[in-house]
Amino acid sequence: MTTEAAVLVRAVRTAGRQVPVVLPPPPDPRLHLAAVGMVAAIWVTFAACTGLLAATGHCMTARWHVGQVCGGSFWSVLALSPEILLFMFFMITDPKTTPDGRRPRALYGASVAFLSALLVAPARTEFSTKFGVLAGPVVVCAGSP
Description:
By secondary structure, the chain is an alpha+beta fold. 57% of the residues lie in helices and 14% in strands. Helix 2 (36-55) runs antiparallel to helix 3. Residues 1-7 have low confidence and may be disordered.
């Protein structure tokens, strides 16, 4: 039986009865360590590209902010946002969609981040900015073999 197919069945005592509970196998930590280079490539590329956008005076409007978000605030809202962190650590690093090997993963991560920043460049609202970030991997995956 392979590791992926193996499950752990444990009896848990509930209200005086034993009930079987099926637990999935623990995740392989090597998969997460292999994604560190890709996560670093994503964040460094995205932070540099959004920093360049912020330096050129790009602004966006947001419902939670009075006026426009520009400059350093624009950069920190994008580069340090919880959405980007969730995007980097959970969505992009999915083992089923990422390429094999360190260099292809880093190239994949950098290309997703660059394309996401490129799609953010014409955006002027928070919604279209976040949509540009999420559209980056779609375009990269559509263009990959």
